Amino acid sequence: MPYFVLVSIVLALLTKRNLATLLELRFKYWYLILGGLACQIGLNAVHFDGTTSARWLLDLFFGCVLLGIFLNRHIKGMNLILFGALLNFFVIVFHHGTMPVLGSLVNEMHLSKLGSRHSIASTSWGWWLADWIPVPPFIMSPGDILVGSGVIRFVLLNARRRREE
């Protein structure tokens, strides 16, 4: 995901867009998005034993983020972010709170540590929605690519052009 943010910033600068104008956007229920993300990051930072309740909490906070994005789908770029996030959400829920990662790719990329929300998978149902796209040093899912593309679209379509001086 950091790549997509970097690409969107570089493209905005190259096309002479003012990134500060993004702060003028009016988000509805912004606290669902920011609060849900903050809680997810907090729960991921704390090591948990993989209990059902901890995974359920992570899914609940992911749902809050999805609801916040859905309620802001009128903003350009948010629909693509929503679609990618929904793909990720479905595969995570189907795999009991973890995002499957293609095991052979983990070995090929010599990744020694996966996040607490990831599990090694081979070809389980929905493997094509899992993390299997190598973008070193990351492994991404089609949902991640769509979310990232949505972030780029969001920045380019909502940041206004700078006035020629």
Automatic annotation (TrEMBL):
Pfam families given in the database record: DUF5317
Keywords of the record: Membrane, Transmembrane, Transmembrane helix
InterPro entries: DUF5317 (IPR035168)
Highest taxon of source: Bacteria
Residues passing through the membrane, by range: 29-49, 56-75, 81-102, 139-159
Keyword Cell wall biogenesis/degradation attached: no
Protein name: DUF5317 family protein
Source organism of the structure: Alicyclobacillus fodiniaquatilis
